[in-house]
């Protein structure tokens, strides 16, 4: 049941109120949480109706792109963002990566008993700021509360629904030999910023997470070219994992040029010290695009005019073989395989 | 990112394999989990494409009904169901309650390190059985893994997208004085079955959860009447909370007739002993409908011919005042207020 419902005489709220099991009950406490914490910032007609599902009229009969993501990032707040902004942007971006315009989001919260309501309010405010920037509405929600020790304060799952922009077919299986690979900016910022927020770096940087909604960037790209073949946001597993996947899906080889890949000095330094490769570090406000070589210059030009594409660069190209492989031309002129990681490098980065 | 992706040389799986952080990494272990555990049972073209979002063509340009629910039920398995069946049915039902046909679901999993993969497989198989029964597809998914002690084995958030059946406008604000209230069957079965599975009852019953998809039942009802005003599945907080909400949303009074409400003897006995009121106990395979009085007989007739509506009954009516109130005519002939609960009676029932 959608639990962002209509008001019933809200209970008074103290300044240091904490989440208790009653906030997930379906009763007065839950209604109070909804009417005070969720509804005012996120307000829109479909949500405010307070029914079991939000009802909306999509703007066209286009195909729908539908995605979901659970967000368990630790810590909840980090330089440049927080779990709320991440939960909105992550799902907005997944929808946008299909060449679609995201319109409607849902958000389901799992709250740990004892969570400060003030923290939740801060997260919801951040969600709304991100939703406004992305021009999407949260039209349905749900709240569950689990006992102390049965979650880690706060998890948010979001889902998104968008309409595919007509005249475009974007998908991981559409990379073609001869295409070029574009990245929208510096890589690894999010992962290293979160590591720093955990105190795991052992030193301080000025780094901020790149978490951002990329749907407007995608729309600009598709407006100048109908030859954008693949879009993907390289989150967990980074650019290396995303491009490995695409190489497999499209049965092609992707070859990167090491010196073309934009990496901030602070990210490079942190990776050097920690023994990480920035290619595997999570991004939350970057995309990789595989596009027709002829259209690449105009796509790059329009990307660089947008807020989140200023440092866009061509970083590689697509070849026929070896099929399913990601290769790297190093600064030394050698070529090496960039493989998929087996297991976990940085848990709970998103 | 959608993490139900295309295959890469799956690793061998031992019989007692457990979830580790690497299963949430974006690397080989995650791909292995996806290709072995999620994709085979849930397979469909949109999911199998392995992109950031599932792309589908909705069958019409009707309004969309979109809902979401987090599922944290404890224990994971209970008589009559499990968290997987619950996660599908809960969201299918929320979409159906808007007079819509659910088509597409997404599922995001939060797994605790140490969870047995065999348990996850059992849950996913149960999801697929329920999805087939409901005639919906899971077209996108996500998996996150958190450290041991940071979740309670397994949480599932599902979202659902459906198309509103034309010619019908169903919503909590549409109850009208003179309407009658129908319930589709016995109340309280789910909550008491889960309590029993926890060992909290102190005695044994033969009770099973009613968890079921109600979308086909809804379709039958709407096929015989365009005067179904409100539909709601009384989950957390039970029939009492659902009808209180509707009374507020529609600014009407709902009056129930105590002896008309179907309650199994074992539920009544358990409630008697525990001091609960079945009206507040969660259901996961029941709906309440508020319909035009003239159409009620034919709606009831068609409900009783369906699998999940055999024991449907008229249990009350809608009046003008007192506005926002749920009242009960007792067997003794008195009338009492059935209020909203303040806090929590049965945590983690769904």
Describe the overall structure.
The structure is a homodimer of 350-residue chains. Chain A is an alpha+beta fold. The first copy, chain A, has 2 domains: 21-164, 60s Ribosomal Protein L30, Chain: A (2-Layer Sandwich), CATH 3.30.1330.10; 180-337, Alpha-Beta Complex (Phosphoribosyl-aminoimidazole Synthetase, Chain A, domain 2). Chain A has 9 helices and 14 strands. Chain A has helices spanning 28-42, 45-48, 83-96, 117-134, 189-197, 215-224, 238-250, 265-274, 296-304, and strands at 54-56, 64-71, 77-78, 81-82, 100-112, 137-146, 154-164, 180-183, 228-232, 253-257, 288-291, 313-319, 326-329, 335-337. In chain A, the strands form 3 sheets. A 7-stranded mixed beta sheet of chain A has the order 9-11-8-12-10-13-14. Chain A has a 4-stranded mixed beta sheet with strand order 2-7-5-6. In chain A, strand 3 and strand 4 (81-82) form a beta hairpin. In chain A, helix 3 (83-96) packs parallel to helix 4. The radius of gyration of chain A is 21 Å and the shape is globular. The two termini of chain A are 26 Å apart. In chain A, 62% of the residues are buried. Mean pLDDT of chain A is 93; it is low at 1-12. At the A-B interface, helix 1, strand 1, strand 2, helix 3 and strand 5 of A face helix 1, strand 1, strand 2, helix 3 and strand 5 of B. Strand 2 of chain A pairs antiparallel with strand 1 of chain B, so a sheet runs across the interface.
């Amino acid at each position: 049941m959608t639990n962002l419902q209509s008001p019933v005489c809200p209970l008074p709220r103290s300044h240091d109120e904490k989440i208790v099991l009653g906030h997930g009950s379906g009763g007065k406490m839950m209604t109070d949480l909804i009417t005070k914490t969720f509804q005012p910032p996120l307000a829109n007609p479909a949500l405010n109706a307070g029914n079991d599902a939000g009802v909306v009229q999509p703007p066209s009969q286009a195909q729908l792109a539908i995605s979901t993501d659970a967000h368990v990032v630790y810590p909840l707040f980090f330089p440049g963002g927080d779990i709320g902004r991440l939960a909105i942007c992550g799902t907005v971006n997944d929808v946008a990566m299909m060449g679609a315009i995201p319109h409607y989001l849902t958000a389901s919260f799992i709250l740990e008993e004892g969570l400060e309501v003030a923290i939740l309010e801060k997260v919801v405010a951040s969600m709304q700021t991100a939703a406004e920037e992305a021009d999407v509405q949260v039209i349905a929600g749900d709240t569950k509360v689990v006992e102390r020790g049965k979650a880690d304060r706060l998890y948010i799952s979001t889902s998104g629904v968008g309409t595919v922009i007509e005249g475009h077919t974007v998908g991981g299986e559409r990379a073609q030999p001869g295409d070029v690979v574009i990245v929208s900016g510096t890589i690894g910022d999010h992962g290293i910023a979160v590591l720093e927020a955990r105190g795991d770096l052992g030193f301080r940087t000025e780094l901020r997470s790149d978490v951002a909604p990329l749907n407007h960037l995608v729309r600009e790209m598709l407006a100048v070219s109908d030859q954008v073949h693949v879009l993907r946001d390289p989150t967990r597993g980074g650019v290396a994992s995303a491009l490995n996947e695409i190489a497999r899906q499209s049965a092609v080889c992707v070859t990167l040029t090491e010196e073309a890949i934009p990496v901030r000095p602070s990210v490079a330094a942190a990776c050097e010290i920690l023994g990480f490769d920035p290619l595997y570090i999570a991004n939350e406000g970057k995309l990789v695009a595989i596009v027709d070589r002829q259209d690449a210059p105009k796509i790059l030009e329009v990307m660089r005019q947008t807020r989140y594409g200023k440092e866009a660069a061509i970083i590689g190209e697509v070849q026929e073989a070896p099929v399913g492989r990601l290769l790297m031309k190093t600064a030394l002129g050698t070529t090496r395989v960039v493989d998929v990681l087996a297991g976990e490098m940085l848990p709970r980065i998103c």
